[in-house]
Each structure stands twice: as structure tokens, then as C-alpha cells.
Amino acid sequence: MTLSRLAALCAVFLFALLVSVPQSRAQSSSTSFSWDQATIYRLITDRFSNGDRENNTAYGRGLDGDGTPYDVDSTGHFLGGDFAGLTGWINDNYFSDLGVNALLISAPFEQIHGWVGGGFGEFQRYGYDGRWPLDFTEIDRSLGTKAEFEELVSAARSKGIRVLIEISLNHVGPPAMNDMAAFNFGGLTSDQWRAWRPASKSGWQSYNTTLVTLKDSATSWQRWWGKDWVRADLPGYDVCGSTSEQMCVNQMPDLRDDVEVSGIPAFLNLKWGAEKSVLKQRQLADYFSRTGYKKTATNHVIKWLTDWVAEFGIDGFVLRDAEHVNADAVKRLKDQSVRALSEWRSTNTIPEEGKEAFWMATDGALSDSEVQHLTANGIDAVLNYGFMQDVQAAADGQFRSYAKRFNADAETSALSFVSAPTVGLYDRGSLKEVASRLLLSPGGVVIYYGDESGRPLGAGGVEQLERANSMMNWSGFNEDLLLHWKRIGAFRAAHPAIATGGHDLIQEAPYAFYRGVRVGIGTDEVVVVMGASGRTRINVSIVWPDDTVLRDAYTGSVSIVSFGQVTFTADPSGLLLIEEVK
User: Fold this and answer.
1) Across the chain, how many H-helices and E-strands are there?
2) C-beta of residue 439 within 8 angstroms of C-beta of residue 35
3) What are the beta bridge partners of residue 166?
4) How far is Cα 206 from Cα 202, in angstroms, rounded to an integer?
5) Coil, helix or strand for 541?
6) What is the DSSP letter of 252?
7) Which of 71, 82, 324, 339 has its CA 20 to 30 A from that of 360?
8) Buried b (16+ CB within 10 A) or exposed e, 200-222
9) DSSP letters of 331-352?
10) Which strands, in side-by-side order, build the sheet including 502-507?
């Protein structure tokens, strides 16, 4: 909007009265959501916020078979985060203030109840991160109840935040001793597992040779998933294969899509009981009749995963280990998810703004051919593992390249990130600098929980990938760092031009660039300066005419374009986030 010079001066005066304290948020925007400009916040529910301490020892986790607590290991134990805790932060606008428009949470369904030896046996490893499923049809009680999960999704939706679930079609969880005892499978040799402790600090895997046997136990191991459900190096099972789709990734039992199953696994029938088993069989019969799919283990899991979409209106999945899954199975998952979301929307009223198509991304360092194959079979976006290398180069080259490759006009949609469960935590001393590069990058971005607060690695002498999943540092926030992420995140959320616009260099020193994109019948235009110091004058004549009132969204200060120039006093961060006051 342009004003006469007198009117503009009045506007500046009134605005200064309203903005006596620098604001951490860009002006609001009525632009529609698009996955091309997503800012996704990725978290492990168990490691985020403890809202209900009553569920902390669900299934006896953290306790031995006699109910005696193990020494708490902050690396591999469940630590108490749950749906109630996460919902509280949604309601408090923590994510909205960061400009987040999608939450990616760890799988909410029931994980193995027990533990296995983690690393090289240094610690007990539970399935706290949602990657060791036991029962795809039930909420994991350590995380809460179905009602609490529904409240979480509803709270996010009320804030305009989509909910994504991290899943895998590649494997199920490993066998743990108390699961063997509870569900009558495997090769436990005695009841000594209940009070067992290792003889050495690095001996948490030694139970495999002292308390579990593989000898002459083929029948008992078939009472677990069974040979037609998974490949595993166990008696009576087909061994793990050598091809990408048949190998046991990280020694996890490999879910099969090449043979039809004879029925529901024996341990699940026992766990469910007769009434639920009959109900699930009936639902599966209807599903296979409708789809015509083969009755493979993978297709059973597709049914159970998409039930979460049909029941709660989940907006999308992020598929781990996609390179180890048949692409046709990925397409089946996408097709059934699209149908399930349509089912949910047919009986639930939501705003048109929230009715985007079901969305699916994959988390994997994929080759170009793998990306093309998967995008042809239902994958909408891939994680950009190249960002951490690209960010070492000059900003303009990276931004220009990304605008060409990843913005709304490009064929491939990508999600840049700096920290992740697969790569660990980015240098904690450089989080402020990298926030600017990440959140101002074209394309979608992913914030891993705690990058905005300086969350440190977990304690313990184990590998950093495990320590990267430490508890959220609510009591040790770096407030200055958080404010920096909030200011840029809010600016990104308010301006689709950041993620989807063209990129043009304005000047090299201090580095300034322009982004613009057509939005409906109008345009969204911004200018960003990086490396500014003190009073900084920028030529914005190619964007705004004289007398236009502009605002630096980083500090909240305003200025007027005069003779094609605008002047702001830069924050010590060196950032100017310039937008037109409307």
C-alpha cells in the first residue's frame, strides 16, 4: 500500500505508539496454507513434555519383572512425555509463535512393552521413539489415551496446524523378554529374566546368551509374528535377505509383502482376546474384498495405519526407510490414506482452509532415481539431506539454487533441516546463524525439537544419534535463541514469498535479496538483509515506490521509502526482515 508523505508520517507515529516494545512476530497474513511452504516441527512425543505422570510406567516400563525400578537411563528409557503435555504447548501458542503450520510426531500406536540392549549393550533401549511397533491398532498407554490423542489433533487443527505421523512399512519391533513372557512366544529359558541385571555396565545384550535360546524353539517363535509376516534370523523364519527390500534394517524384523499370511499373528490374537479378534478379522475381510489386495503382512499394516487417518483425520505421514519398501506398497498406502481422509471429512466439519489433499513425505537420503520412483508412487516431498552441506556455501548461491529447485513451480518438493534422528544434532554453538539460513530458505523446512531452544545432547557414553533424542530442555532455554527463531519463523509464516517466491539479489554488502510471489489477485513481496550493522540504508526502488511505509519485522521498527531508499537500525543479529505495512 502506498501513502502520501504526510499520511505516511502520521502512520509511522501511530505505529510507534502501538509498538513500544520490539515485536517478535510479523504482521498477520491471510494467505492460504500450502505444503510447498510448510514449516514442520518434528518431535518425539515421549521426549517433549510430561503432562500426566500417572502413565509414566505403563506396561511396567522402567520396572523389572518383579516391579523393581531399573536405574533410569536418560538415553533409552521412556521419560514421560505424552499427548497431554504436547497439547498444553499447542494451546499456549508455542508452535504458532514459531510460525509452525505442521507437527510431525512419533508414531502414537503401541510399541513393544519391554527393552533390548542398546548400542553395544551399554544401555536398555525401549521403543520410546515410536519405531518399534507391537500393535498398530492401539494407542501406546505411555503416551496417553485415544481421547487425549483426539484432543491433541483437535487443538492443533484449531490453531491451523496440520498433524503428521512418522511411520514405517519396513519392520516391526524386536522381541523383548517381558513381551515373550506376557504373550507366550520365543525362547525364554526360565523366569530369571524378572530380576536380571547384567554383570557389567555394557552387558545389556548378554541376556541373549543366558536367558533366551534359539535351540529347538521354532514352534514357540512362530507364536510371535510368524514366518509369513516377517523375515528374521530366528528358528523357523525365512532369514533376512540381501536386497534392499528384504534386508533386516538395523536388525529389525523385516515386514513381508511377497507372501500371503495365514492369519493374524498368534500373539496378537492372544493380546486382543476373542471379541476384538473377531471384529478385526471382519474389518480386514471387508478391506481385502474392497481393495482386491493380496493378504500380505504389508497390506494388513496399511489397513491399520490408515485406520488412524479415518478415525482422527490425520493430515499426512512421513515414511521412514522408504528405500527399503516396494514402491507399489507406498502407492497402496497413499491411495488408502487419501480414501481414509475423505471418509473422515465426510463426517466431520472443518474449514475449507484445512482440506488439503493427504500428504506424504519420506525421510531418507535417497538417490535422484529413488526420489523420482517414489514421487511417481505417492510421495509428495523428500527430506533434503544436502542442506547441511549447502549451508556451508555462500547464502545467495544456496538461496538461488533452492528457489529454482524447490519452490512452488518446481517438480520436486523438498524439506530442508539441520538436525534429525538420522543425523544427530547440529552444532549447538551455531544455531542462531543456521536458523536464518534454514527459515529463509525456499521450499519447506523441518525444525527438530529443541533446535530453537538450544537443547543439548543427552548424557551418557553412547553414540550421539541416541543422545540426540534427549528430553526437551524446558528448564534451560536459551531465550535469546528462541526469540530469534520466533521472529524469523513468524516472518516466514506471514510471507509465502520466502518459501515459494523468486529470488533476486539486491546488493552484495550487506547482503540483501528480494523475494516475491503472486498470491490470488495480489502479490507478496519482501526484502531481507543479512549481515547489516547499525543504521543500514537499502535501495528498495525495484520493489516499493517512494512514500511506502515499511517495517522491519525483526525489531518492529518502521520507516518510509524516500528517493528509492529505506533506512533501518539493524539488530545485533544483522537481520532486517522488511515488509510493507498494510
Assistant:
1) 17, 22
2) no
3) 318
4) 9
5) coil
6) P
7) 82
8) eeeebbebeeebbeeeebeebbb
9) HHHHHHHHHHHHHHHHHS---G
10) 502-507, 511-519, 522-530, 576-580, 549-552, 558-560
pLDDT above 50: residue 128: yes
**Res. 31: pLDDT tops 70:** no
Find cell 515421549 and name the residue. 46
Which DSSP string corresponds to 224-246? Answer: TT-TTTEE-SSTTSPPP-SSTTT
CA distance linking residue 287 with residue 291, whole number of Å? 6
- Sign of the C-alpha dihedral computed for residues 332, 333, 336 and 341 taken in this order: negative
Percent of the chain surpassing pLDDT 90:
82
DSSP 114: S
Would the pTM of this model clear 0.90, i.e. be above it? yes
Q: Is the pLDDT of residue 198 over 70?
A: yes
Alpha helices (runs of H) in 101-168, residue ranges in sequence order: 146-158
Tell me which residue of 581, 552, 548, 579 sits closest to 4, measured CA to CA.
548
> For 50-79, how does the pLDDT look when each residue is reduced to its tens digit (9 = 90+)?
999 999 999 999 999 999 999 888 899 999
Tell me which residue of 470, 448, 449 sits closest to 458, measured CA to CA: 470
Task: Give the count of alpha carbons within 13 A of 520, CB side only.
Answer: 6
What does the alpha-carbon distance between residue 508 and residue 505 come to, in Å, rounded to a whole number? 7
462 is written with which cell numbers?
553412547
Burial of 181 (0-12, 13-18, 19+ CB in 10 A): middle
Chain centroid to CA 381: how far?
Answer: 13
**Per-residue pLDDT reduced to its tens digit, 517-567:** 988 788 999 999 999 999 999 999 999 999 999 999 999 999 999 999 999
**Residue type, position 341, single letter:** L
CA distances from 108 to 81, 132, 272, 373 (A): 12, 11, 18, 29
Once rounded to an integer, what is the mean pLDDT over residues 367-393?
89
Give ∠ CA 415-417-418 in degrees, rounded to 5. Answer: 170
d(CA 171, CA 229): 10
pLDDT score for 463: 84
Considering the chain, what is the average pLDDT of its residues?
A: 92
C-beta contacts of 565-569 below 8 A and 24+ residues apart:
565/537, 565/538, 565/539, 565/540, 565/541, 566/537, 566/538, 566/540, 567/535, 567/536, 567/537, 567/538, 568/532, 568/535, 568/536, 568/538, 569/534, 569/535, 569/536
Query: Which amino acid is residue 150, in one-letter code?
Result: E
Cell of 132: 518399534
Determine the residue type at 229.
W
